[in-house]
Amino acid sequence: MTLLLITGTSTDVGKTVVTAALAATARAAGRSVAVCKPAQTGIAPGEPGDLAEVERLAGPVKTVELARYPEPLAPDTAARRSGQPLLTLAETVAAVRAVDDADLTLVEGAGGLLVRIGEFTLVDLARELDAPVVVVAAPGLGTLNHSELTVRALESAGVRCAGLVIGAWPAEPDLAAECNRTDLPRVTGVDVVGVVPAGVGAWDQERFVAAAPGWFIPGWSAHH
User: Fold this and answer.
1) Residue 189: what are its φ and ψ, rounded to 5°?
2) Which of its termini does the chain have fewer beta carbons within 10 Å around, N or C?
3) pLDDT value at position 90?
4) Which run of H or E residues covers position 58?
5) Is residue 6 a contact partner of residue 136, using CB atoms and an 8 Å limit?
6) How far is CA 161 from CA 133, 152, 180, in A?
7) Measured between alpha carbons, how far is 3 from 125 in angstroms, rounded to an integer?
8) Residue 108 burial by CB count (10 A; 0-12/13-18/19+): exposed, middle or buried?
9) Cβ–Cβ < 8 Å for 192, 184
10) What sign does the dihedral 191-141-117-53 (CA atoms) show?
11) What are the CA-CA distances from residue 2 to residues 62, 94, 99, 100, 116 (Å)?
């Protein structure tokens, strides 16, 4: 089983759509996929969360959700406010490793890299699982700083960054976005391995699945 963790430079940069696109690309290559979202916030019990969105876009994948909190806050804060126990690193690692019937398991974090998923961050999880991390970045102003900080945090923890993915590339990019697309690899030392167009999260499954493989560098996902 191949493991790949997905984080973002911040919240609302397109992690869930990128996760769906990675799942769709793997499935198009004939691989079975599982997607784990350890902590889901801002969704009431029984409501469809990020995993349901991944399934809607990418098609049949195995899904694993460990905890859900109603308030749209960082998971550790939401857990405390709801009186629920915080997820532990050990139980999360065990749940990810228990998925042994998929060729590729994707683990989507919450918010940015150092957001507490429970008693731990995605860095801790990646290090414990010895898994690489994909960083989803915004296209506009501020992304160079946010992306370099995120990559440096991974490097300082000894975690490999598998690549940057621009999570919502505008149909009409401004000068900052165009320059950032060129400058991101230079300042971070990490390749931009994918560019996902803005708005594709609203597409139907057939259109999304057909287009997703074209958003990534050819052959890149085959190595993960």
Assistant:
1) 75, 15
2) N
3) 98
4) helix 50-58
5) yes
6) 5, 10, 18
7) 11
8) buried
9) yes
10) negative
11) 14, 15, 11, 10, 24
Identity of the amino acid at 176: A
Which amino acid type is present at position 111? Answer: G
CA pair distance 19, 53, nearest whole angstrom: 10
Strand pairing category for 104-112 and 33-41: parallel
Helix (H, G, I), strand (E, B) or coil at 71: coil
Residues of the chain with pLDDT below 50 are none
Q: Which one, of 12, 21, 10, lies nearest residue 209 by Cα?
A: 21
Choices 3.40.109.40, 3.40.50.300, 3.65.10.10, 2.60.300.12: CATH for 2-223: 3.40.50.300
DSSP class of 41: E
Q: What is the pLDDT of residue 222?
A: 53
CA neighbours within 13 Å on the CB side: how many for 45? 1
* Strand partners for 34: 62, 105
Amino acid at 96: V
**CA–CA–CA angle 221, 176, 199 (5° rounding):** 55
Return the H-helix or E-strand segment holding 26: helix 15-28
pLDDT value of residue 223: 59
Residues designated catalytic: 37
pLDDT score recorded for residue 1 = 81
Q: Give the start-to-end residue ranges of the domains of the chain.
A: 2-223
Sign of the CA dihedral with 104 first, then 108, 113, and 114 last: negative
